[in-house]
Amino acid sequence: xxxxxAENVNVYYGSKQALFDVSIDIAExxxxxxxxxxxxxxxxxxxxxxxxxxxxxxxxxxxxxxxxNLELNSRKLDVVRLRESVGMVFQKxxxxxKTIYENVAYGPTIHGIAQSKEEMDQIVETSLKKAALWxxxxxxxxxxxxxxxxxxxxxxxxxxxxxxxxxxxxxxxPCSALDPIATAQIEELIDDLKKEVTIVIVTHSMSQAARVxxxxxxxHLGKLIEFGPTDKIFKNPxxxxxxxxxTGRFG
Amino acid sequence: MxxxxxxxxxxxxxTSYYFGRKKALVIQSSQRLxxxxxxxxxxLAAWCAAPALIIxxxxxxxxxxxxxxxxxxxxxxxxxxxxxxxxIYTKVKAxxxxxxxxxxxxxxxxxxxxxxxxxxxxxxxxxAIILAILIFSLSYAYRSVQKNDRMRExxxxxxxxxxFVASLGAVLVTIGIIFSLLFEAIRFFQAVKFFDxxxxxxxxxxxxxxxxxxxxxxxxxxxxxxxxxxxxTFFIAFIAxxxxxxxxxxxxxxxxxxxxxxxxxxxxxxxxxxxxxxxVVYGFFAALTVGPFVKEIGNAMGLEVxxxxxxxxxxxxxxxxxxxxxxxxxxxxxxxxxxxxxxxxAMGATKSETVKKVIFPAALPGIVGSILLAVSRAxxxxxxxxxxxxLAANLTMNPLESTSTITAQIVVILIGDQQxxxxxxxxxxxxxxSLFIVTLFLNVIALSVVKRYREKYE
Lengths: 251, 458
Known about the structure:
- The complex is a heterodimer.
- Chain A is α/β, with parallel strands linked by helices.
- Helices cover 36% and strands 27% of the residues of chain A.
- The two termini of chain A are 32 Å apart.
- By secondary structure, chain B is an all-alpha fold.
- Chain B contains 16 helices and no strands.
- Chain B has helices at residues 2-30, 37-72, 82-97, 106-146, 152-191, 194-199, 217-223, 227-258, 261-276, 279-300, 310-334, 338-346, 351-380, 383-388, 406-414, 423-457.
- In chain B, helix 10 (279-300) crosses helix 11 (310-334).
């Protein structure tokens, strides 16, 4: 089952082309990992999927990206609705300088999801539970979110992302700023979440891609070199460049 | 004479710099240098200039009072007061310089001769001593250059002391100003009760003026009530902030969040040009353009409007402060990390929601700090008020009437002739120190707020 289907996506920053003819099928309720050396365009591609490239003034996206037959790369698209159904977790944990409760309630508030205070409390609780953070913070929901540890902050950001029940969550190197224990917690969480949500994760760690994903795409110099089941990419890739990268010969 | 001496010292220092550098190159041919050749030059130049200039300055500071003591020695048996002695000394000096027009007594004449003589001795002694010091310090420094002593450390220590003296000077001058304010204010409070000043509601210092002798203490009681001035100051500052905060803040938000790079590139410098307009220009703009305009509009609406209204002065002052707030809040908002914006946009928040719910709260401490700094500027602003809001200290909260501020009253008190020791003159110092305390208080709060904000993100 394909959730997102990208065809011939080209991205330019000013006159510099960052992505070349990327076509990819992202399956529903699976984890898709995007790997590749720094600057290969994997984050750029990820940001096409919730139109975060709109924030960058000089960025231009060409090609077609369809989610459930809805064209994402269109001027007519309601970006607010799109981002409600495609959440994002960033490289550096970025909770708002507000309370833990307000951080999670942020999305439901701006989208008018909760009708009452009780409903909002419920959403906050389930989101924090799904993000495996509830037990650690349930007694201090009114403390500032930026006061948590790095791993807790990142789980708070995940709770924030899932609070609006998105269909897809994009993760841009979510563990690169975390220690191994926090990383393990996040990976466990990703495994749980994929039962309900489609996840696309950009990662620098090949072992992480191998651990959490079902499909893997290898990017190099703005091109999607190879895409396939994770097992195959890591054990028996078709492409020599993929082979070299996986075995650590470059990148 | 002094100019020649200083020029000579400076030129000699320059020469010794080149000489020292050259000498280092000579030493280099036979042994390893302890520092770069230029340090040898600095070393010689510092030893040449510093001792001579220090002695020169000390001499210039103390010479007049020493000469004065010598001159006035002849008058000690006459039982004169301090002021009379001062007067005699002034006469002697004037006579010696040849521009005295009063009666010349023999005694004065003798003193003037003595003055000229003393001055001559002092001058020759000064030149001789400074030349001696130059020779001594240069030969000392040259010997250590010759011995190829360590050069870098003494030069660095010398530079440290130069910097120390500069900052010490800045601090001492500030402290000096504060104390002179304080002492004059204390003398003012000996004539006028502190509580009459702080709580009095009537400010009319002119009525204490008496041609000879002391003014009536009953009059004093009612003439120096500073409440109308404080009220006027804060009232006009309030009107100014009513103009400056909304416009400044909104334009700051626009520039940092909404404006494209092209707009920002031109709009920001243009707004900052407003900050470069001299306050005098704002002043006559307020007095000649805005004031009559406000009056006309008010009259058309059937309101009684004074030509010099608090509204005109406050509004123009607000315009003056706009760039201050917009520029500072723009900086503060731009400093909010991009990843907070990303986080909010990624949740599907619109730009205005992001500004309202994430960026503005995150930047709020910095914005409050910039507003407090702006308030302290508004409170200290003088020119606009003097020109546009009149000089009568009315206690009023009607923006269409004229009112006056602390700064404007200080100007009124100190322009024209005034008598030192007169409470009217001294009241300027009391006003000055109260203004200083208010702005200091605002600045301290503002800076600590801004600092706390910085710690949060860095």
